[in-house]
Amino acid sequence: MSQPITPAQLRRLQTLxxxxxxxxxxxxxxxxxxxxxxxxxxxxxxxxSFSKLDRVEAKRLIERLQGVLNVKAPNKSPRRxxxxxxxxxxxxxxxxxxxxxTTLAGPAEFALIKRDLDRLGWDQARLDRLLQSPRSPxxxxxxxxxxxxxxxxxxxxxxxxxxxxxxxA
Length: 169
Known about the structure:
The protein is mainly α. Helix content is 56%, strand content 0%. The chain has helices at residues 7-23, 32-43, 55-69, 83-91, 107-120, 124-132, 147-159, 163-168. α5 packs parallel to α7. The longest helix is centred in the first third of the chain and has 17 residues, at 7-23. The N and C termini lie far apart (71 Å).
């Protein structure tokens, strides 16, 4: 037995069909009976209600409507982080750090540092020279492994001016 349509699929399908009805001449008409007639023809069986569709049928109808309307699937919202994780993101690496445990740096932190490097016009070799210099914000560490190190480096890089701004000044 197939799984029933999810509430999110049902909302998406209803939204897309109402847009389809308003914005195209291909809609079979307005109202519930024309909507169900359209769904029945597309699925290949009689549909008495959108809520009686299964997940595969709903997915097929949603994709069909998105194709007709030239609409992309909505992005999934990022997973909400916990309060503790948010505090750690903001305080690890500071002298007044409020958590004792150490967190490993992840892809988000490395992407933030990459964005800082792009803003500055730096490459990896330039970053390596900074990390090996006596002025390194990481005090001798040449690899970024913890959230505290990533935060320290990010805060230091934010204070540097891009190469093109320093040359004109």
